[in-house]
Design a protein that fits this description.
homodimer, 28% helix, 6-stranded antiparallel β-sheet, 20 helices, 793 residues, 10-stranded antiparallel β-sheet, Beta-galactosidase, Chain A, domain 5, Maltose phosphorylase, domain 3, alpha+beta, 26% strand
């Protein structure tokens, strides 16, 4: 077996869809994880995984904050030898047992835990059904000893049935009811209280609208629905009282601390193998039948079929695009893991080890949904329309909202609303589907209008928040949430918002013209002119661009500053937006290369703040080098690749990419301390003693963008209204790469040859054997496969 | 040693100030406690104990929600034998070690953990300094083996430094900094983020304003400030990595998961005894010096002195009143534990095992402060004025508020505001200090006015919320928070609020007249007349009084109801308020006796709701028999004693008291499952399979009231404006009881004799040897002790 990337902890399997770990734990950067963490949790947190309910409007499995089934994140299966009385678990936690072999494989939509303990080989494979809210635990045991073994298997989960984390379990558990269904080998759970207000705004007055269940494929030996009798007064999950007793206590009802513990017994002859299946799910009352779900999934055959369906499900999403380049890390991440992370972690799971999201962020999942553009643009469209519906007629938006029942904060954030026209433009470039602009979408406080008007209202709202100098106001903050004190009095300015708006206007002026909205097009043109002038007049600090001015008029990201002298965002977006001339663009990016591009990616600012500044905001309160305070904030670091590429600076573009591409950190995993197959939200900067340490993996908007900068700006395959542009910017050492991807209803098999070892420059382009002038391949829309041969030189 | 009450778990020491437990755990009713719980937590939760900061305006030690030092509630001391490498802890958790002896003593303001493990006898005594924000851990070790022992002692706490519970540790820990101070054998901790908004309303933009510390009396062998290195990636607090390594890792700074682990080493010759002192505290930046606090308290001498000061501190508060009756449970609770619970748990600690309070409840601590009336009325006065300052000029109040920085919800609760005039009246009865009515107190939205006008505005606000039938509206809810859907549309009525208002008006009419506020007195009189008529016209259900009508006009607490047919509150308050005639009063209380007075106290309603009713509220969502849904809600159950006593129904009064007096549950502790020395918030009713199980101990307003009904309505010693009324209502079997208490600056030593074994009726009364006509002893105000001899007959 080929190990593409191997580290102390594990390696990728050759096809890149599995990461194999050979110790009980992957590295986790911060300590909380240690005491709570276990693999079962990681699986469920990170697979398509933990995900429980069909999310309204999504029709996909998702775990959502409002609707979590479990309180304790561990889902455990205890194994007990009934002759010796010794017990262990199918995962390392909670029993922390001795083992002869231990290996975990994380794949797309599943994880498998394999071990040999006391002569019993076990493989636990965990996954969620693609089309129903059911998690499946498939446990296969093989007796490798030379004597018959009598074992029992005991599941353990704690019912939560509501908001997570539950900050007052003692109260909420009073409303849960568990009911055994012995005929179905199951325990059901309901909750008579849900944290949302009812129609009259009264809290604590509605049911949790699901029926949760745990079931097992074998007849029950015994069960327990109460934590107290399971653990015992004097003990813990590491050695629960239940493992000292012949059977479980059989408690259920409304008066305990609700769990689901199901116990089954099996006997294994020497060499014999048996599979037992546990299921965990939640059925919407009135439209789903928990018992039918149990029957549908709780068998060996059904679980085998469902695992195959999981593979097919993810294959459809990831295999619509495939790249092969000389860079195996780029291939691995682009083909599988970034898509998987963006879709399962961000768009559907909405949570990770370090963060449980309360819903959709307006900017966040809007950017993320660009990951669907190649494989299923309809899903991107649905997400766009969903976000548009979170807008007010005044143009501003809910900064985030609960994805189940709606509701969220209306703030003075200065950029969230602008991501709507930005992402609509991306969608148009990929699909050419201008009909989306006529989709009627309601406002939160007004009747439906075409999506075009939603975007226009967002832009016009941004127009209403300018400083007298012609720079957009910072408001409560811009993309950098931690700048939350810079401009709350509506005097401080954001130079980055100037650039971002400038970028969007460039794209929206032609759209307005196409719709004969001349007045708006002219207004946008005028604003664009002002922005360019004002930005270069007031935003230039001499060697780079300023980030902001504060309400008091002080500069941020200036040579005048001792800390926070230079910020990444205004300098890379100066290039991305084209708001400045080539000379300043180069100068700004030279400063980025000099001060911000460090060994582990591009820093968000430098030097970090070492002292809190109450006129800037909480970014200054982080330890210096952490997250937005002088760390590599991965989301923004991906954009530095874009900016370097736009300048044609291939070396820096590729370095800025390579240094944050996770598999490249496999070799120094003890420093990196994060999973090498997903992007982290941040990487410690040079002022941290843990320089290079990855933090907050999975739940980060960087996954989609790292995918996008690789395909669009390194491989240079960029959808445009007119067709598919081919403009690679690659290391000169590359001989060749291929990209297979769908584009507007056809498949493009693109081969790019680089015989002269250049970085850039298409000298010939053939489609289906015919030469094509220019670098834009037309949209064929014919359902066929087209071969594209490109030669650089 | 005499054991007043012994149970499976422990017994009281003869003087009643200690409860001794002989297993590692006291019983805990609900399961969550199991996995989180340990004795260290219990101590600190329940002593004067956990309590960290001088609370603004209180100048007392208190633990407050906004200001908690620790995240993990455990505070552990590991003991390790350096020759054998074996380790255990000074408490049973987290190591769950084998022991030869284990005993815990909970006293007023301290707890002691005594054990013998591997030949080492240890006593850990934990307490908080009376005058500084310092918790002290005094550990005395004795080598009972016959060889020299080398040991090290390692502390472990997790820094939180902010709101508890912390629902997002991964974020908040990024703002904590730890700094070793080896010269002081200490580790300091600061946090650069606090959950409160700054002056401009910006969140996440201020420092936590304290410096926390942990220190030890011996020189440091090593230390660690990081959870990851202490526990290790693969382990837990039960067997941390630190115990496998010769010294601690020595990490500190801003980049870990902050803890305080201090390690010291000692050598003990056979028979040798040594004491080591750890301290934990938090100094307010700018006004307190953490190093000075460390030096002041971190020594054996200082800790001994401080423990003596703790004893003296609590003695002053509890010994100002002492009763001796033939009922040892009544004596124990009245003399010590109810005072201690009300003051330490409710007024200062504001938290318990089951609930961490966010501040002061308007009604809650206002009632609780009556516990100060005998021992220190000035503290009651301060609390009253504090609450009055949480009122709006419109008369309504913050339902609760953060006790450190203020702020809380303004609701349509119908009774909270009325507790101000109610408790002011209690204060006046005890002290005669009518000058309090002239205290100038500001409103939240208006300038200061005399307290009298605050009370008047509360009453007038209540006047503005009546139904057309002359009954007060329920609003968002009344005393019973769970009735939170009955009247939110301002149509539903609360008959209990009618009675409560009637009670208050009786007392405030003469006060208004004394202040020549004739118009108000007349208005009150008129309202009182209406209330009486309307209550008896619309509130009487035939055999008892209704609780409420809903917005839809449906009755609650009526024979028409299948569930919730009868409620306790309107029936006992019909008697307490005097709103009805004697016949209906008796009839209502007969219904209480028949349907509500169960083996374990008086139920709040019956039958319990078994199905959620969205037009009533979350009370119907609890399991039937739990808490406000058909359980004994202890706060209200104390008032049933008052009502029976007012009727002269001594048997029921005494039974209603006896059944909820906690030590009486010692014998059936396996059913009760709660500490037998504090009141629980509730006791399961007969519809629960755990009928008789106590729940949510410590943080309950029932403590103060159980004290009050015993002294005022059973012993019958009731302060009144004119003097001290003596009107006992006692079991006929009692021969005699004594009460020593302060009253308006004098000490009254009261002996009540009952030679004829009656229940009630004073036939003679002598003061200082002189007969006195009537039953009211005048206020002497002379600082002297007066002996009072009372004969019943």
């Amino acid at each position: 077996m080929e190990h593409l990337f191997a580290s102390t902890y594990g390696y990728f399997r050759a096809d890149g869809r599995e990461y194999v770990i050979t110790t009980p734990f992957t590295p986790r950067p911060w300590g909380n994880v240690i005491s709570n963490g276990d693999y079962a949790m990681m699986v469920s947190q990170t697979g398509s995984g933990y995900s429980w309910r069909n999310n309204a409007g999504q029709n996909r499995i998702t775990r959502s904050f409002q609707d979590l089934i479990q309180d304790n994140w561990g889902k455990y299966l205890y194994l007990r030898d009934l002759d010796s009385g010794q017990y262990w678990a199918a995962t390392y936690k909670p029993t922390c047992h001795q083992y002869d072999h231990y290996q975990v494989r994380h794949g797309l939509g599943y994880s498998s835990f394999e071990q040999i303990v006391q002569g019993i080989h076990s493989i636990l494979t965990v996954f969620v059904a693609p089309d129903d809210p059911v998690e499946i635990f498939q446990l296969t045991l093989t007796n490798q000893s030379d004597r018959q073994r009598r074992l029992d298997i005991t599941s353990y989960v704690e019912w939560l049935l509501g908001f997570a984390p539950d900050e007052h379990r003692e109260f909420h558990k009073l409303f849960i009811e568990t009911t055994p269904e012995p005929e179905f080998h199951a325990l059901l759970a309901r909750k008579y209280l849900w944290g949302f207000a009812d129609e009259l705004g009264r809290h604590n007055n509605i049911d949790w609208p699901y029926v949760a269940f745990m079931a097992v494929s074998e007849p029950l030996k015994s069960f327990d629905g109460d934590k107290e009798s399971f653990i015992g007064l004097y003990s813990s999950l590491e050695h629960p009282q239940a493992m000292q007793q012949p059977t479980l206590a059989g408690r259920s009802g409304r008066f305990g601390d609700a769990i689901a513990a199901l116990q089954v017994e099996i006997t294994l002859a020497p060499g014999e193998r048996r599979t037992v299946v546990f299921t965990l799910g939640a059925a919407l009352q009135g439209s789903e039948d928990p018992l039918a779900l149990i029957q549908r999934y709780t068998s060996v055959t059904a679980s085998d079929q469902t695992l195959q369906a999981v593979h097919a499900f993810w294959s459809r999403l990831v295999d619509a695009e495939h790249v092969e380049t000389p860079d195996p890390a780029l291939n691995l991440m682009t083909n599988y893991w970034l898509k998987y992370q963006a879709i399962s972690g961000r768009l559907w799971g909405k949570s990770a080890f370090y963060q449980v999201s309360a819903g959709y962020g307006f900017r966040d999942q809007l950017q993320d949904c660009q990951i669907f553009l190649v494989c299923d643009p309809a899903l991107a469209k649905r997400q766009i329309l969903l976000h548009a519906a979170q807008q007010f007629v005044e143009g501003d938006v809910l900064h985030w909202w609960f994805s189940i029942r709606g509701g969220g904060p209306r703030t003075n954030c200065s950029d969230d609303l602008l991501w709507l026209p930005f992402v609509v433009d991306s969608y148009l470039q990929e699909t050419g589907d201008v009909a989306i602009l006529d989709e009627m979408v309601p406002y939160l406080n007004g009747p439906a209008e075409p999506l075009y008007l939603h975007c226009k209202r967002a832009i016009e709202r941004a127009f209403s928040r300018f400083s007298p100098r012609g720079i957009p106001l910072m408001g409560d903050h811009d993309w950098n949430d931690g700048l939350n004190a810079v401009g709350t009095q509506l005097r401080g300015e954001s130079f980055w918002v100037a650039e971002f708006l400038y970028t969007i206007l460039e794209r929206w002026i032609p759209l307005a013209q196409q719709r004969s909205d001349e007045a708006f097009a002219e207004r946008c043109t005028a604003v664009r002119t002002t922005l360019r002038w004002a930005m270069n007049r007031y935003g230039w600090d001499g060697e780079w661009f300023l980030q902001a001015t504060t309400d008091a008029g002080l500069p941020l990201g200036s040579q005048q500053n001792e800390e926070g002298r230079i910020f990444l965002m205004p300098n890379i977006w100066a290039v991305i937006s084209g708001i400045t001339d080539q000379q300043r663009a180069w100068q700004a990016m030279q400063a980025v290369s000099r001060y911000l591009l460090c060994d582990y990616g591009t820093l968000l600012n430098y030097p970090a703040f070492t002292r809190p500044r109450s006129d800037i905001g909480y970014v200054t309160r982080y330890a210096p080098g952490l997250r937005e305070n002088g760390g590599v904030y991965t989301h923004a670091a991906t954009w530095s690749v874009w900016a370097y590429a736009l300048l044609g600076d291939v070396d820096h573009a590729y370095e800025a990419y390579r240094r944050i591409c996770p598999p490249n950190r496999s070799a120094d995993i003890e420093r990196y301390k994060a999973e090498p197959y997903v992007t982290p939200g941040n990487i410690d900067g040079p002022q941290s003693p843990y320089f290079g340490r990855g933090g907050w993996t999975w739940y980060t908007g960087s996954a989609q963008w790292l995918h996008r900068v690789a395909t669009h700006w390194i491989l240079g395959i960029r959808p445009q209204i007119e067709g598919l542009l081919i403009d690679p910017l690659i290391p000169a050492t590359w001989e060749r790469f291929t990209v297979r991807r769908t584009f507007r209803g056809a498949i493009y098999e693109i081969e790019v040859l680089n015989p002269n070892h250049v970085n850039r420059g298409v000298i010939s382009l053939e489609v289906d054997g015919q030469p094509l002038a220019g670098t834009v391949i037309p949209a064929f829309n014919d359902g066929q496969t087209h071969s594209v041969r490109v030669v650089l030189g």
